[in-house]
Amino acid sequence: MTDQPPATLAGLGEFGVVGLITRGLPLGADVRVGPGDDAAVLAPGASDLVVTTDTMVEGVHFKRDWSSGLETGRKAVAAAAADVEAMGGRPWALVVSLSAPADLPVTWLRFFRQGVLQECELAGAQLVGGDTTRSRDVVVGVTVLGRLDGPAVTRAGARPGDVVAVRGRLGWAAAGLAVLGRGFRSPRAAVAAQLAPEVPWGAGEEARAAGATAMIDVSDGLLADLGHVCAASGVAIDLDSAAFEVPDVLQTVAAATGGDPLRLVLTGGEDHALAATFAEADVPAGWRVVGRVVTPPEADTRVTVDGREWEGVGGHDHFGA
Amino acid sequence: MTDQPPATLAGLGEFGVVGLITRGLPLGADVRVGPGDDAAVLAPGASDLVVTTDTMVEGVHFKRDWSSGLETGRKAVAAAAADVEAMGGRPWALVVSLSAPADLPVTWLRFFRQGVLQECELAGAQLVGGDTTRSRDVVVGVTVLGRLDGPAVTRAGARPGDVVAVRGRLGWAAAGLAVLGRGFRSPRAAVAAQLAPEVPWGAGEEARAAGATAMIDVSDGLLADLGHVCAASGVAIDLDSAAFEVPDVLQTVAAATGGDPLRLVLTGGEDHALAATFAEADVPAGWRVVGRVVTPPEADTRVTVDGREWEGVGGHDHFGA
Questions:
Q1: Which residues are noted in the entry as ATP-binding (chains A, B) (predicted)?
Q2: Nearest to B169 by CA among B250, B280, B77, B224
Q3: Mean pLDDT of chain B
Q4: Minimum-distance CB partner of A41 among B99, B152, B318
Q5: Domains, chain A, ordered by start
Q6: Counting CB atoms within 10 angstroms of each CB, which of A46, A96, A197, B12 has the fewest?
């Protein structure tokens, strides 16, 4: 034994890991029992409750070669809490499960905690509990509770005549992945977007209050995710390619990788933008109208671009079928 | 392509996996939006909300050689929901995250679903959502929401003079593990207890209503878990070895493995019995009084047996420190 602080989770031990993560957490007055007991206890108030869970697996969703602990923590919270926004709710409280190998550096854990708390602060949520265990690969599970002060905005309410609007980034994370996959680390804005998204926090409740008829968060790519809205609502959607902003960083990446910047925008996932449908007069400021909900010909509930089918809509199937 | 139904998750695909698990779920009137959208939406009512998460990793918490999908699903739900009981609450709604290799048999998944739903029914909870992704090892994360109609029973309220009482099994799961570890599959009652515990559902709320001053679920072993109560409450506990029931199955396993049946009772985890402290007159029927809360000498908040320290209290450290 030396006086050195432990360098890995094995040295820290299970209670040390929990202690490092939970020490000094900022907790609201609505948390009756915080971390450290068998479970957390919250005062829910009068709002409805939104519940969603999301899991990130090392080697599937992130690589420790690419992502720091901070980015991993930020991305895990962002991906889960964005689903609360997509129902029109506000992220409120979350529990985190961390499975990790015993040789994981304590430094990684410290940065992971920092990333979780940073994204919690951005999202307006608080960490109230969790669980930690050993595993071969790092697996991060985040369950988020949200508050919802009105009817949920599901995927099923889009009506022909509504417009389709988006808020947040599209294609940035996919551009970052294209860059990283070729062994580069720039443009840094694209790489940063892949490692931890910039979610338009607050936009989900804003859309609900404005009267959004359907909403989804863009995790698999705009075309794929709007496809879910079409299927749930029994409608079709036609997007206007000229309505999209294609930022310089996507032009740069597309030029460098031989890709199409519009393809990044339409099919790139992991940015957790929000896409919603509104009556035309209801679109809030800051949302970009990019298409229109139409009556599908013969129940063919699909998404078109400029009236034509887009090749290779994609969407990611984790089991590879 | 053939007309054969897919044999593995790869053939089923991500949406097929989600569809198989979520199709036809029984949902209460308090579920406003069930599985299939970005998140579930629940009407919380007037109760306080209990939140807890628990993760089981293949090769760490279970082996697919030993546990069927049904047992894995049952155990994952039981281990998580027992923490709601331990606060004095009632399990209400849960989300499940399943990470699994693409070659996992669909049959395993069907049994897993059945196990999750069986244990949900026993616990009085409903499955409202989840997430699935690919991974090398099967990792099951369960987050449970509970309802709590009164002050939470934490670990911190035990008072000198209280009695310590337990409800549920002690040592059965550890006995099963000892058997399985030697390559045997009997006594079957012990093996079954290791593969999926029999949680005393409803006993947590019963203890709270009766005035329990502190409570914990026995996941790491009675001595280790009562140690947490002692530390949180600033007390010591002395157990009476003669007060424990040592069932025949533990005698059998101890005789066959050269172990001590009382050691199984005092240090065996994973049965998710409840241990609580009460004023002596408040102990509900069905609870067994096994010890007493005492004032610790010199802040030495530890658990003794018949007035003496028990060697090797144990408790399981997942990171092996």
A1: 130-131, 155, 219
A2: B250
A3: 94
A4: B152
A5: 13-148 (3.30.1330.10), 163-309 (3.90.650.10)
A6: A46
